[in-house]
Predict the 3D structure of the following.
Amino acid sequence: MAWRDVCRRGRPAGGRVRQDDVNRSDPPSAHDAGGPSPGIVTFVQEVVRLDPPWRTPVKPADFPTGCRVETYPGHSAADVHFEGRAADVYLNYNDADGRRWGDWLFDWCVENCRIYQIQGVIFGGRQWFSEMHAGEPFPRTQHDHDDHVHIELNCNGASMT
């Protein structure tokens, strides 16, 4: 099934799991995009697999462009992956190279968030959401993102081609 836009525009994106159903009153099918969005596919191809067109900060020459990337469907219906708007790039925070690569991707996403309309990034002990903490990265105490960088786009970014 091809991706279908399940977003409702005009509501804040921020760090919410589902930006348009914060009370989780919709049926899960209302958020099933059917696949990864054009925006997240473009992001993975241009930033993870190739050299990003915007080169600040500079991508490490040894970045593993063949690393595992997961997009749709995620782990549940209440998930930005299920809406086709997120990617998990598997890099290990507890490995020196993995941390260096993941830190680069995290920093690149924050620095260039407007290009792909990135609304959130999580890796290791840091997280960033466009509408939280004045747009500055802040600490993360959970250790559920030590093995991957989570990147999520807002609805407009997801529908970009």
Residues 11-18 have pLDDT under 50 and may be disordered. Helices lie at 38-49, 96-111, 113-116, 155-158.
